[in-house]
């Protein structure tokens, strides 16, 4: 229940957030980006993708969904699958979506048409797709739903025809931001490719499937009917996190066990967070400092890129939800609801709605033990704690101590 060690370091002024005795590094402009040269911990998924590539090459189409929370490396895995397919003679085209595209009809298909037009072997089909999206036929039909249905089927047939001249890959990133029309087309395509050498790969963030996002029900239908297959990216194990840390710090020696354990504890094995955290450490000149080791990892602040994403997720939440999140961050990474109720001064019934809101938006997750919740990852807890107003923090700590 007590305050977690090291939190003061996260609230210290810039340049003073390191353990006592660790020398100050030279001043730098900012963290240098680190990118692991090897895709760590995904061998089983790549082997699975290889089997599907072989099946598609033999003439049996497949629809794969790469799922996982932000930062697990879905785009990197997608790129690795694309390269393996291209090495086997597949033609590859990729498109993506953005948060605002939920309001744009067929946004990812428009992006796909543009990408196809930039690729010689897909250019003609890309022009046809763009023309179909911009000026659909059937305007004389009275029934608008009938026109939409014809449009959906026409585009699905057009996309399936991309494999007429040989096996092809269509990659679609961030499907969680797709609109209804896009999903209708992809659902029709999934039913159309059984006997077509086409591999369709879509990525989505599992932590973005809020109850009202159109893709939630769409995904359930496709998986239930076996029209799509889902490969889920998990967090890295402690061993894989240690391997990734060794590759990133480039000292030529395996990372020390206590440092690897500290990296895993702070990042929860999320690859992007490992890279970002070690990037901050590298900017401070301590990434390869075996003397600083685990203390340096525990003392380094939350990377700005990660912090910004967490703040953007938390700020739209209700005031009650934000208050619960702040109280939870003071209690610790995981907490009992009775302690949370005591700290917030709210009864258990009053906690239900803010807890549901935070869980719905993947800030908190219910623990396996009934009556307990925890932050989705450690850096969420660190970021929220760091942003608690100075005037509020002592009161929350006092209430936590009393509850404990």
Features:
404 residues; alpha/beta; 3-stranded antiparallel beta sheet; 8 strands; disordered N terminus
Write structural notes for this entry.
The chain is built from 18 helices and eight strands. The chain has helices spanning 7-11, 43-57, 74-87, 107-117, 123-134, 144-160, 180-192, 215-224, 238-249, 257-267, 271-283, 293-299, 304-314, 319-331, 337-344, 348-360, 378-386, 393-403; strands spanning 62-68, 91-96, 168-173, 198-205, 229-232, 334-336, 364-366, 372-375. A five-stranded parallel beta sheet has the order 2-3-4-1-5, sandwiched between helices. β3 (168-173), α7 and β4 form a beta-alpha-beta unit. Residues 1-31 and 138-142 have low confidence and may be disordered.
Run of helices and strands: HHEHEHHHEHEHEHHHHHHEHHEEHH
Instruction: List low-pLDDT spans.
Output: 1-31, 138-142
Structural class: alpha/beta
Major β-sheet profile? 5 strands, parallel
Strand content: 5-15%
Give the overall average pLDDT: 86
Q: Helical element count?
A: 18
Number of strands: 8
Rg, please?
24 Å
Strand order in the sheet with the most strands: 2-3-4-1-5
State the shape.
globular
Task: Summarize the topology.
Blueprint: H1 7-11, H2 43-57, E1 62-68, H3 74-87, E2 91-96, H4 107-117, H5 123-134, H6 144-160, E3 168-173, H7 180-192, E4 198-205, H8 215-224, E5 229-232, H9 238-249, H10 257-267, H11 271-283, H12 293-299, H13 304-314, H14 319-331, E6 334-336, H15 337-344, H16 348-360, E7 364-366, E8 372-375, H17 378-386, H18 393-403
Parallel strand pairs: 1-4, 1-5, 2-3, 3-4
Antiparallel strand pairs: 6-8, 7-8
Helix pairs in contact: 2-3, 4-5, 5-6, 6-7, 9-10, 9-11, 10-12, 13-17, 14-15, 14-16, 14-17, 15-18
């Amino acid at each position: 229940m007590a305050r977690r060690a090291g939190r003061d370091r996260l609230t210290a002024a810039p340049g003073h957030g390191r353990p006592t005795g660790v020398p100050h590094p030279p001043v730098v402009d900012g963290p240098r980006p680190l990118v692991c040269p090897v895709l760590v911990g995904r061998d089983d998924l790549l082997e699975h993708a290889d089997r599907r590539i072989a099946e598609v090459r033999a003439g049996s189409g497949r629809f794969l969904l790469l799922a996982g929370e932000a930062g697990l490396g879905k785009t990197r895995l997608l790129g690795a699958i694309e390269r393996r397919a291209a090495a086997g003679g597949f033609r590859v085209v990729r498109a993506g979506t953005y948060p605002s595209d939920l309001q744009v009809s067929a946004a990812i298909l428009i992006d796909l048409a543009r990408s196809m037009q930039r690729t010689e072997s897909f250019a003609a089909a890309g022009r046809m797709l763009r023309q179909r999206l911009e000026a659909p036929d059937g305007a004389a039909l009275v029934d608008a739903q009938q026109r939409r249905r014809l449009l959906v089927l026409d585009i699905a047939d057009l996309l399936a025809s991309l494999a007429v001249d040989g096996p092809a890959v269509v990659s679609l990133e961030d499907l969680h931001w797709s609109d209804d029309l896009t999903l209708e087309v992809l659902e029709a395509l999934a039913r159309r490719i059984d006997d077509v050498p086409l591999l369709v790969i879509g990525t989505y963030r599992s932590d973005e499937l809020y109850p009202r996002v159109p893709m939630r029900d769409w995904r359930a239908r496709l998986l239930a009917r076996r029209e799509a297959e889902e490969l889920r990216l998990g967090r890295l194990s402690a061993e894989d996190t240690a391997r990734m840390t060794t590759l990133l710090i480039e000292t030529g020696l395996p990372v020390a066990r206590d440092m690897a354990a500290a990296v895993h504890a702070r990042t929860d094995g999320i690859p992007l967070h490992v890279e970002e955290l070690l990037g901050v450490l590298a900017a401070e000149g301590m990434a390869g400092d075996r003397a600083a080791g685990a203390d340096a990892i525990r003392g380094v602040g939350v990377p700005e890129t990660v912090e910004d994403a967490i703040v953007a997720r938390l700020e739209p939440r209700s005031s009650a939800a934000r208050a619960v999140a702040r109280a939870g961050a003071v209690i610790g990474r995981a907490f009992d609801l009775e302690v949370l109720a005591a700290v917030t001064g709210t009864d258990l019934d009053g906690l239900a709605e803010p807890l549901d809101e935070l869980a719905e938006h993947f800030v908190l997750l219910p623990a396996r033990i009934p009556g307990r919740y925890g932050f989705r990852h450690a850096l969420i807890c660190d970021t929220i704690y760091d942003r608690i107003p100075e005037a509020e923090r002592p009161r929350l700590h006092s209430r936590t101590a009393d509850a404990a």
